[in-house]
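Below is a filled-in request sheet from our internal design queue. Each sheet records the structural input a requester submitted and the sequence that came back. We keep these sheets so that new team members can see what a complete request looks like end to end.

REQUESTER: design group, bay 2
PRIORITY: normal
MODE: inverse folding
CHAIN LENGTH: 80
BACKBONE (tokenized):
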């Protein structure tokens, strides 16, 4: 139920199709077809890596987390 109510989405206008979010997702919930923007599935664990580490701010969070995002680790650290 919460996956439908709190579904993460990518803003197509802001997304640059860098695919960092796809690589960062620990449960492989984000997919991206060639030349398209990322699609978020319904298996999200709300770790908010995609929201916090998107370099273009293209993924918004549907619930109020008061602007707090996870920045203790850089995206490069996750992508090693």
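RETURNED SEQUENCE:
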């Amino acid at each position: 139920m919460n996956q439908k109510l709190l579904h993460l989405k990518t803003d197509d206008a802001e997304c640059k199709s860098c695919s960092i979010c796809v690589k960062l997702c620990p449960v492989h919930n984000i997919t991206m077809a060639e030349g398209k923007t990322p699609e978020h599935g319904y298996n999200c664990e709300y770790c908010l890596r995609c929201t916090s580490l998107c370099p273009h701010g293209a993924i918004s969070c549907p619930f109020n987390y008061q602007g707090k995002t996870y920045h203790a680790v850089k995206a490069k650290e996750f992508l090693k």
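SHEET NOTES:
- Residues 20-24 form the longest helix (5 residues).
- The CA atoms of residues 37 and 59 lie 11 Å apart.
FILED BY: M.R.
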